[in-house]
Amino acid sequence: MSKIYTAEGWVNWEYLYSQTRLFCDVVGSRGTGKTYGLLKYAVENDLTFILLRRLQSQIQTIAGGSESNPFSKLNRDNDWTIQPIRKSGQTCFYSTETDEKGKIKATGRCLGYAMALSTVSTIRGGDWSNVDIIIFDEHIAMIGERPIKDEFNCFLHFVETVNRNRELLGQAPVKVFLLGNANQLCNPYYSGWGFMKTALKMIRGGQMLYRSKNGDRIMVLLLNSPISKRKKETALYQTENNDFIRNAIDNAFFTDATNIKSEKINGMSHIVSVGDIGIYRMKNGMYYVSETVQKNNYYNGQGIELTMVRKRYCLFPDLYLYGGIQFENYDTELLFRAYFNQE
Fold this sequence. Notes:
The chain is built from 13 helices and 14 strands. It is α/β, with parallel strands linked by helices. It has a nine-stranded mixed β-sheet, with helices on both faces. A five-stranded mixed β-sheet has the order 13-10-11-12-14. It has helices spanning 13-19, 35-44, 56-63, 72-78, 151-163, 188-192, 196-205, 226-231, 235-239, 242-250, 303-312, 316-321, 330-339; strands at residues 23-27, 49-53, 82-87, 90-98, 104-116, 133-137, 175-180, 209-211, 217-221, 269-274, 277-281, 287-290, 298-299, 325-327. The radius of gyration is 22 Å and the shape is elongated. Helices cover 31% and strands 22% of the residues.
């Protein structure tokens, strides 16, 4: 079994933590031990953490306690008493005890903090030098979930705020773990790191770990999860539709190919390039999507430029649905669907 999984089939956080220098992005199906396992690893190794979510409403839900507490199952399984408690305007996680009147009180040090990316501009003056790791849970938004303006850069600014000048002082940088489900291939993080095309190649080749050239970033796709295979045998996943199973279990981003036929682009008119694809008009009036990207009329495939290209070329989704677009290969079709919100 891959080192990415434990002998029991869960995500092996001891291994991934040892491999991570700065960023570790882990995408996999639900229930494979991503959040549960990393929070457990942090507590057991005395690592002060920030549990980051995209939206403030999600943090408010966590702060509500009871079953919305991300430590609920960990508490039951490990006889812990960790609860989110509001102190000085901040949601912090503490071990707790209950007094004779039934009031819950914090004990010991703050184990970690809960924060929202949508509101992190308010913390830039704080001191987070005690934080060892950032756990960004569910960083890939569900389709239809509220976007955050310039999300990727907002995230990088947040990491910089927490990290400050550690490396200049001879200290190790904060480790950042991004945990997500395979909701959208075209997400701010895959686009920002230029990882979409590589992710498709990894899925096709069964590769689970990619390491950037400078070693600062590893990207993990939890393929062939032993836990996922077992979950397919449960009643829920045998009764639900295939799309649900694919996103919840298989982590495949995949959809069926439509019109694949490789052509030479000589003689075609370049219309626009976005991210890793170029779109051309063929002599027969159809459009052709190629891996050949042109520098003129180019959009980078993220943030405001992605919004602009979707608005300015808003007819492409309809042309696609009515069979008016041909693709060089399967990857270009998947990238087109991602850029033009057809996943």
